[in-house]
Design brief:
It contains five helices and six strands. With 148 residues, the chain is of the alpha+beta class. Strands 1-2-3 form a three-stranded antiparallel beta sheet. The chain has a three-stranded antiparallel beta sheet with strand order 4-5-6.
Length: 148
């Protein structure tokens, strides 16, 4: 089959493959891929080294599936083939490097539950802020921009 005789649907599929390859090259060049990952027992943090030479760490209690894990389970980390994700096989937990860098430590529903728990905690600071707002007449109203 010559190029002139190639059906249109095949040309469309080939164009999609080329576009996907181009997106993959851009993503690989971004440097947001893990080169290595380990559990630092002294700091009690997961440390991730990226292919661009930078690194970051986070406490495991913030991440979905890692909160109650033992150090040996946290130390058993696998990196996905392209370095875009981290997997803890003993815990059946997975997190993306890009998500972690964006502060996403779990699925959308897990993050929502985590935020709700954090918001429902009572503390002296929250009590003082509520009293201060009450003395000023309650919670400030949302301001609206005046029409021009």
């Amino acid at each position: 089959m010559t190029k002139a005789n190639t059906p249109e649907w095949i040309k469309t599929e080939l164009a999609q493959v080329e576009a996907a390859q181009a997106r993959g090259q851009v993503e690989q060049a971004s440097g947001l891929r893990a080169l290595s990952a380990r559990y630092d027992t002294r700091k009690k943090h997961i440390v991730v080294d990226l292919i661009n030479g930078s690194s970051f760490s986070f406490p495991p209690h913030l991440a979905q599936g890692l909160a109650i894990a033992r150090p040996a389970e946290l130390a058993d980390i696998e990196i996905s083939p392209y370095g875009i994700g981290l997997h803890w096989p003993q815990l059946d937990a997975d997190l993306t490097v890009e998500g972690l860098l964006a502060g996403l430590f779990g699925s959308r529903s897990w993050m929502r539950q985590h935020a709700a728990k954090a918001g429902s905690v009572k503390s002296e600071a929250k009590t003082q802020a509520a009293k201060a707002n009450g003395a000023k007449g309650g919670r400030p109203r949302k301001s609206t921009a005046a029409p021009a």
